[in-house]
Queue: 2 jobs
Job 1
Amino acid sequence: MAGSRLRQDPESTAAVTVLKRAVELDSESRYPQALVCYQEGIDLLLQVLKGTKDDTKKCNLRKKISDYMDRAENIKKYLDQEKEDGKYHKQIKIEENATGFSYESLFQEYLNGTVTEVWIEDPYIRHTHQGSGKEQQSNGLQEIKESLWSHGVVLELEYSSSIHDREIRFNNGWMIKIGRGLDYFKKPQSRFSLGYCDFDLRPCHETTVDIFHNKHTKKI
């Protein structure tokens, strides 16, 4: 769809690039990623439309925007139905030493106003920069529990000697499975290095994140 007429306009270069990627992802049935690119591309085209004075170009841009919006809406309906049927699946591959994958970046999209409970299952914390020894870990979790309580959040802790799976569930139906669990960040080089506090800047271990949706998700 990203036609040659748009390519002749320097202001449309970014829109063409994003929309071309959207069409590629769409053809590969990677619908969640395609939808994001369609939405970004449409926003860029709307900006181009605002700065266009030629009536013919305006008409062409409106037609392209309408076509892309129709396709994006169809994808959104399809994904909504997948969620309704419990078949939705999105996969994110985090490469070795990649950055930009903080907990906030991964989870924020799924933590909407309907979330009132979160269940986290993680077998163990194994690196010293996460807490050296069971006693220190327990003390740290207790401090977190008290801090959350002061903000009206109740943290309940349960321990198991047999758990192996790693998953995070929200009671709005989202379920996230991370291959390495929450332990996918590399140890910071020092307290003053980039990424010590801002996890978006901290390098990651290679892992895969699988995201599912099921409106019937319940606590097990």
Note: Residues 55-85 form the longest helix (31 residues).
Job 2
Amino acid sequence: MNCISDFIRIEYRYLPSTLYCLVVVSLFFYFVGKTNKKRYFSYLFFILSLISIIDIVLLIQESDIFLDPNKTFSGEFGGKSFKPIINETSLHIRCFDYNNNSNDGSGGSTGEKTIIFEAGTPFYSTIWGNVLEILQQRQQQQQQQINNSNYNPMNKIKQYCIYDRYGYGWSDLKYKNNRNKGVQGIEAVKDLKQYLELIGINDHLILVGWSYGGVMSQLFASQFPSSVDGVLLVDSMGLMDLTDTFLAKLINQGITSFKVLKYLLPSGITRILTPFFPLSSGYLESVDLSDNLKYSTDLIYQSFNNIDASKNELSIIFDSINQLNDIITNQNNLFGNSEYMGNKSLVVLTAGENGTPDWINLQFEMTYYSSNSVQIVNNSTDHFVPLHASQSIVNAISLCIVMSN
């Protein structure tokens, strides 16, 4: 009974699956008693009914994964999930303490900085699994060192946090009465600031933004400069994307794909096929990510909230980049430069494996946003840096901390 009650609690997003099941089962019974010619339809609806029933059973069995992020993270990474609420809308934030040993061996956390990870579209907190693993390894190594140096920049870390933007993972959609409305960048980061304050995170932030998350990190730094110590942009989107017609075409295709997927979800066909045909969302079988994270991600990926969040975010990506463009343009008009971050530490980590010289140069232009900046080009990774080069992200975080002192 608890499973059924949990299933009902997962909003209304699986109500379409139940209604669809009732329809195909009814059609099966309708055609099963017909003439031989129409009886073939009964075979079709029998198969569809069977798939739908299996799908609903699986959803009920796995409802705890949708409801409780601990089922996904606790076993491997520990940490604590928070779901602060603003205007009846919760945002999922999961934080991990980075406990360092002091020189006197007394132990305890000596850091002050909080690392905030911003995922790209259409990903969320689980994309950082490999980075979390590296951070844990670093932490264990430091705790095993008797003479742990205060000059180790990682000692400055108090905690690191991953989170899900509206509608992704374990976060609510912001506009529940208008599920087709996206949340533009500045609005989203202002909300994030409030959510962070509700769980006691106010300042000394190091923002790590990958892809579209890089745009979000830049917008956050522009709106709350006194709260941010440094920014790490991981193969970030930027102003150069405003004139990329190929990217615009891909985004439009993505919006269409999510619309189609949303209509297929109630049938259960996409979920049944997932074990055999993993989603092309970066979580392919060949990716070195834990099976638990991949399973959880593929399950949540195929939910109405997540599909709506992905579709809506794709539809406002250029709006958010234009907001960033306005900020930089205003900086140029007032001061004759692009240094809207002032002298905050800024590290631009660029994936060079598939990047053209133009792409690398365009990424380098982001270093102009701060007078205290550097670019690192990793030629051994593609755009999926969190999955394929997590070590380079952790190394870049360390550098960003050094530059922020």
Note: The radius of gyration is 23 Å.
